[in-house]
Amino acid sequence: MAALINILLLLLVVVVLALWVAAPWWLALAVAALFAAWMLLTRRGRQAASVTGVGISTLRQRLGSSAVIVVGIAGVVGVLVALLAMADGYSETLRKTGSADTAIVMRGSSASEVMSVLERDSVTLIPQAPGIAKDAQGRPIASPELVVAANLPVRGGAPDEESSVQLRGVGEQAWAVRPNVKIVKGRNFRPGMRELIVGAGAERQFAGVEPGDEVRLGNQQWKVVGVFASGDAMDSEIWADANVVADTYRRGGSRASVTVKLADPKAYESFKAGLESNPQLKVDVDTTLDYFSKQSEGMAKVIRIMGITVGIIMAIGAMFGALNTMFAAVAARAREIATLRAIGFRGLPVVVAVMLETMLLALVGGLLGGLLAWLVFNGYSASTLASGTVGKLSFELKVSPALLWTGLKWALAIGFIGGLFPAVRAARLPVTTALREL
What we know:
This protein is 55% helix and 16% strand. The protein folds into two domains: 7-95 and 296-437, no CATH class; 109-281, no CATH class. By secondary structure, it is of the alpha+beta class.
């Protein structure tokens, strides 16, 4: 019989957790309201409330053991929310970089701009496609751009420590396709000169890139003349004249991509069809919104998996802490529980009371962990590690209400599991045995 009850409890845990994971906040609030009504309006509910009140009143006497639950769960929630905030901040930074009314054209089957090479003929043909917006002079708003990986010294690192940054060669139309890019220090580079402007994020990450500094890129000396800000992934790049970059890195008339401003978001299909139907072109076309969203998927997925894995490992530890604490509390209150059973309290109020006590401690831990994560990590600047072909990306962690709710759900789930088995043990404890033990 005991084995069957344990199996049923495990099945109950699995079912409740499966439903709890998918529960929105409003449904959880509705269930809490129904539960509160049950405690107020029914006899067993009022009994559960009475037993819970007695248990809570003794928390001061068990402050150390109760703090184990609170601190353990706070740590789980804090770490989980911080790692998920990293994934959300990274994804949001890349999503903000794109829009539905701009499109990017790269060589067919290219995973990113760094891997794409468009020959001069393709660069000339792409702006002739239908659906592109025109500027005041009637020219298509299309920006052929060259993207290469460069190395710069890391700010605050060892003297010889360098990391990769994306150097983007652009022309005058780059500003028309990205009107959010603004010079915030110094001035823009002059065409034909070895001058650089540095993104605000790159300025924070790298040393020696203030206006007036000189850096060595591609075996040439460049002068930093300004800093720009865009509020998206472009903040992590450095820009220069496309022709000068092409000469320095021996790229000739080729470009990595062409970014265009569409006449209207609805013009995307005609623009794409015009390029795909041209036998002289072998290109891939995406809106910049789709392109940068795809770029974020892999890294964001890795960060989320890492966060959940670390969270599960920590949650197991917190869960065992809660189980030990509540089993000890039940043992210490065995005579009290037996007395309540003897005077007419049924098993259900006892189960509810023990679980409520645990989940209230879990709730406090979840709120504390979420608050700490928000205070410490919301808006915290971070960056990805650079590889040989992709530069660092600066972004800010975002601790959103949705993430705080996720952390709170984890906390309450730990409290549910940590309180369920001790609660059932308390309800099944024979009255005569409990009275003889103490």
